[in-house]
Write a structure and sequence with these properties.
Elements: E1 2-11, E2 14-24, E3 29-33, H1 40-48, E4 55-60, E5 63-64, H2 70-73, E6 76-78, H3 90-95, H4 103-116, H5 132-144, E7 151-154, H6 162-179, E8 183-187, H7 190-196, E9 199-204, E10 207-212, H8 214-219, H9 224-229, E11 235-236, E12 251-253, E13 259-275, E14 278-285, E15 290-296, E16 310-314, E17 320-322
Parallel strand pairs: 3-8, 3-9, 6-7, 7-8
Antiparallel strand pairs: 1-2, 1-4, 4-5, 9-10, 11-12, 12-17, 13-14, 13-16, 14-15
């Protein structure tokens, strides 16, 4: 297990990482998710050994690696800008970290990895001959070549267009799962974090503000800031809940506990969107003077549902989650 204990890092008077404690379990992909400038890339560099913490401790198993060099740690690293050697071909780029192995062993390992990243036959290609997606596949293969104990990825898909980013996201998820590789994935993109990670650590201003699995983050955000950052559709300030008995804001309304087609609460349909079998409804509850968004798969909706129709709702008290932090951005 990789363990971080109270890690801090400052640049002059600026605290980039503030007292971070975190664990990475076996066969786990952990996402570091947060807005730009929150310290997530700095934290990854501290884990890699590219920079040293001002205080705190990093251990891998029983070994203290806090002051160890990047080479001694042996972690694989994939960067946003690929960081390939332009004067070397694909084979030599991937084999770069395989010092000490024979020529045949290197060739065999390169061939194996090119097959894994779907670039079989690219050994002799020059880096400038590759597309951005192909270069990132080569960068991933190079990072995996020495069989690192942990793979560190710093915004690896951010320079790619949306279609290619989606394709590589699915491929990366398959590769990490197939290799049972421990990984830490830095991103500002919630979709990437939710698609790739077993757990997500949300960072804000150098601190970890919540670590949880996807469902828990969405249904039980630790604060109104977390709910707002994740784009929770039903996040309310205190004044918006003035007509809702027993609920003090800020609070979120859990989508999974809203029951359509039953109960005594009436809501007016403001908009309806159907994506495949997924319904999205924008509703106004006149009794509460409150708008909400509901989404899910249901057969309980009337066939000729139209804007202005009235629907019955049931919203139990436990569907409301009151949150700390009074300010909602």
């Amino acid at each position: 297990m990789l363990r971080l204990e109270n890690i801090t890092k400052s640049y002059g008077n600026v605290q980039a990482v503030r007292g971070v404690s975190l664990e990475l379990a076996e066969d786990e992909t952990l996402a570091l998710l947060g807005p730009s400038g929150c310290g997530k890339s700095t934290l990854l560099r501290l884990i890699a050994g590219l920079e040293l913490a001002n205080s705190g401790k990093i251990t891998l198993g029983s070994q203290d690696i806090t002051r160890a060099t990047p080479q001694a740690r042996g972690f694989g690293m994939v960067f946003q800008d690929y960081a390939l050697f332009p004067h070397l071909n694909v084979e030599k780029n991937i084999a770069f970290g395989l010092a000490g192995e024979s020529r045949e062993e290197k060739r065999s390992r390169v061939k194996e990895l090119l097959q894994l990243v779907e670039l079989s036959g690219y050994e002799s290609r020059k880096i400038h001959e590759l597309s951005g997606g192909e270069q990132q596949r080569v960068a991933l293969a190079r990072a995996l070549a020495p069989r690192p104990p942990i793979l560190l990825l710093d915004e690896p898909l951010s320079n790619l267009d949306m279609t290619l980013r989606e394709t590589l996201k699915q491929e990366l998820r398959f590769i990490l799962s197939k290799l049972k590789m421990r990984a830490i994935y830095v991103t500002h993109d919630q979709g990437e974090a939710f698609a790739l990670a077993n757990r997500i650590a949300i960072m804000r201003e150098g601190k970890i503000v919540q670590v949880a699995k996807q469902n828990e983050l969405y249904n039980q955000p630790a604060s109104s800031w977390v709910a707002n950052f994740l784009g929770h559709p039903n996040l309310y300030r205190e004044k918006q809940l003035a007509n809702v008995a027993g609920v003090n804001g800020p609070a979120v309304l859990r989508n999974d506990l809203i029951k359509l087609g039953e109960g005594s609460l009436e809501a007016t349909l403001q908009a309806h969107q159907l994506l495949g079998g997924l319904h999205q409804l924008w509703l106004m509850i006149p009794a509460w003077n409150l708008s909400l968004r509901w989404q899910g798969f249901t057969r309980e909706l009337p066939e000729n549902l139209k804007v202005g129709d009235t629907l019955k709702l049931s919203i139990p008290q436990e569907a409301w989650l009151e949150l700390p932090e009074t300010q909602v951005v």
